Amino acid sequence: MSKSLLAALVAAAIATTAAATLTDASRSKASASTAMSCTIPNAVSCTITSTKGLRSVLIKANTPQGVVNLVDKSYRGCPKSVKVSWDSAYHSSSTKFVECSSAKLKLKSN
């Protein structure tokens, strides 16, 4: 196989992965306060932001071997922005972002 044909096939695979990943991210059931922005050089790299802060990020892929977790991370301190990445050979099939809830204090009166 020629180098130019191989390069074209790799570019097509990356473009397909990028389109699928961004499409899947736009279908995410995350709230309106959560956003996901991705770039795809040799790996998919995404920055996820939330005005409420993020408690966890779960991104899955369907593979011939079944569903696998591409990203399964939990965060302390509810960061407003996190960066995650995975091999560009896989495109995400589902995303789940768990946002932090605002702290509510209850005052007890006597």
Topology:
Elements: H1 3-26, E1 34-39, E2 43-50, E3 54-63, E4 66-74, E5 81-87, E6 94-99
Antiparallel strand pairs: 1-2, 2-5, 3-4, 3-6
Commentary on this structure:
There is one protein chain. By secondary structure, the chain is an alpha+beta fold. It has one domain (3-99): Immunoglobulin-like. The chain has one helix at residues 3-26; strands at residues 34-39, 43-50, 54-63, 66-74, 81-87, 94-99. It has a three-stranded antiparallel β-sheet with strand order 1-2-5, covered by helices on one side. A three-stranded antiparallel β-sheet has the order 4-3-6, with no helix packed on it. A hairpin with a 3-residue loop joins β1 (34-39) and β2 (43-50). The chain is elongated, with a radius of gyration of 18 Å. Keywords: Signal. Residues 1-20 form the signal peptide.
Protein traits:
alpha+beta, 1 helix, elongated, Immunoglobulin-like, disordered N terminus, 110 residues, single chain
CATH topology type: Immunoglobulin-like
Terminal residue distance: 81 Å
**Strand order in space, largest sheet:** 1-2-5
Low-pLDDT runs of 5+ residues are: 2-29
Query: What is the CATH class designation?
Result: Mainly Beta
Helix content: 10-25%
Which strand-content bin applies to the residues? 35-45%
Keywords: Signal
Signal peptide: 1-20
